[in-house]
Amino acid sequence: MSDTVLDRLVECLAKASAFDPNVQEAPVALLWPDEEARWQSVIGRIAGRVPLVSLGAFEPAQQRGPAYWVRCVVAGTIDAGLADGRPVIYLPGVPQGAVRAVETCAPELAPIAELQYRSRWFANPKGRDWTVRALLADAEHGLGLMVADNAQTNAALLLALDKLLDVPINRLKNQVLDADYCNQLVNPDPPSLLLGWLDDPAGYRSRLPRAQWVAFVQQCKADYGFDPELDGEIAAARRLAARDGNWDLVWKRFAEMPQGYRGVPEQLRKARPLEFHVDNPPAWPQDNENDEDHLRSRLADCAILNPEGARKEIARLNDEHARRRTTVWAGLGQAPLAFALEQLVALAELTAQPLAANDLISLASDYTDRGWRVDDTFLRALGAAPARADRAAVAAAGTVLYRAWADSAARAMQTIIGPMANAYNYEATGPASTAPGVVSVFVDGFRLDIAHRVQDRLVTAGLAVECATGLAALPTVTATAKAALAPVGRDALTAGPGLQSRNTATGTAASIAVLRSLMGDNGVQVLGSTEVGDPTGSAWAEAGELDRRGHDVGSRLVDYLDEEVDRIVGRVRELLDAGWLRVDVLTDHGWLLMPGGLEKVELPAATTEVKKGRCARVKDGAVVEVPTVPWFWDRDVRIAVAPGLTCFEAGKEYEHGGVSPQECIVPRLTVTASAAMTATGGPEIRKVTWLGLLCRIELSGAGHGVVADLRGLAADPNTSIAAKAKETSAPGRVSLAVPDEDLEGQRAHLVLVGPDGEILADRDVIVGRNR
């Protein structure tokens, strides 16, 4: 059984009394000041768990008395019937400061004023009394719960405190304690009582007062045709799954917040009839698991299909499994393959059309407008299925579609770029800006699809972002292409060893230290990872570890993308908050990612001076049978390029250095503070998940009075399509329902609105679609 709030509160009192006997005298008591008597309604319950006396009118049977009596209890000259242990002295109506100054202490408090020198205080570290909200929310000294910070919640907490003490802590880990939650505790309705009992039958009954249990039994008999004492939880779970009559409302309540009733799925599992075919299959966890197993097997079988066959099979599977994205099991995270399938459907549609390949302009334009979505969708499909077996199945189906499309795009680009580069008409993106007020943030391996994720987050935060694209220096490896971006003096770098440039003046290879030194010589500040520099000048900073992680973990990079995006977004906002007029986010190259590895192609070692996964420096006079391009730093040096989506090394799931849209077409974000910019820590929409027509939103930084809504026009509340706009209450999660089924597939704005109606965050969404 999980600890309850009362259990943790008792632990907080014990922690506050703790001392080190090696260096401290044992305190004689723990003084608990409570000027507004917020805790008085539950002191009797706490006193049942710890030795506690209260200051007040003399009632020894209630362990309460005046200051002289309290002092005698502490001294042991009066037996108050306390359990063994250091006594807690509860001081209702008494602030901590009332006994601090002994000389001016009120006469009725004077007898206990001296105790403060031999006791500990149970109070906020800032010297304030513990409010109910503060103690519940404090992570270090309290319970570390998520509690809304508003007057309504503070008042509701006092009313619900007695019932809140009985709530298991594990049920509150992902629950924001707000006024609605507290009021439901004070006035529990039959559906919530039923679900609470089903979640933990024995424990729930033991915690319920006898009178409330009797009433609950009567309600069940009258409203649900069921006796919890005689019929038991298995019969209740079977009725819940059937959803007949009033049970339908109970199921809907469960479906709205299944995470709050983690024990109910196990009851449903035990209650499922033994028949192979049962009524209402979506209600049973076994049926969902069987569907996931079936889908996993069918996706894995796609590996033997050609792309067109895979498209047809994925469409057929989606017809069969799309409904599961609206079930309870989807809400509990137990239908990952159903969500991965949604991305595979999008991937099948996107890869049906190859990139335009008439010339470099048309290819780059098509990739910039549309092609990057193929890469993004493939990554999202893999990321939706974190379990090893699930990901392998998704990769099997997705790779059939993605490999053919990406290989065709790479070969088309190589056909176009080869002659251009050999004719010296390939123009790489220029170096970073040195304009005053501009800081360039370099992100190694900042591919275009990842740039769009960062752009979405920054725009949602109220920033103005422009995304331009250019071409990476060849070959697309850091040793070559990063130096090409460095804001150093003209002709400061020239061709060096291997694939590196070198300092023209000293001949030293252009290591990180050399590049930083040259940037400094050019008047550019080089910022450390936590430095913000002088915004009146120009600067170079670096953020993220995309490329390092890609090389380290291969296709598992998808598991770290959200974290990497967070880091880049955070660094950009930090620099803008420090006063920089503009932040440019730029990169040296993109990359290819292929679960299972890129196909290997042979390149004799005798023909190369340096060989990487997707490129190699060819020895003078050597003949190779793969495409070649001139080196950025010396046009007389030839660079061999792996054809299509192949690789010169085996087993590479993540690689770059070659010629493909993913590697060569690089983004450059220009970020400035718009008029609607929010400060760092302001409200931000972090993740949106659609479960049918229910939109679940994960957000951060939302304070009191911020409302979430779905609208046709972002600034017009009259265009709301949500059943009800909801106050976010606190950082965490909020759900919005769209009642009109005809709106599925329509575009809308998910907005966070401030108390004055200002749009604090705005994200484009498609109703019912995860993308």
TrEMBL record:
NCBIfam families: BREX_PglZ_1_B
Protein's UniProt name: PglZ domain-containing protein
Species per Swiss-Prot/TrEMBL record: Pseudonocardia cypriaca
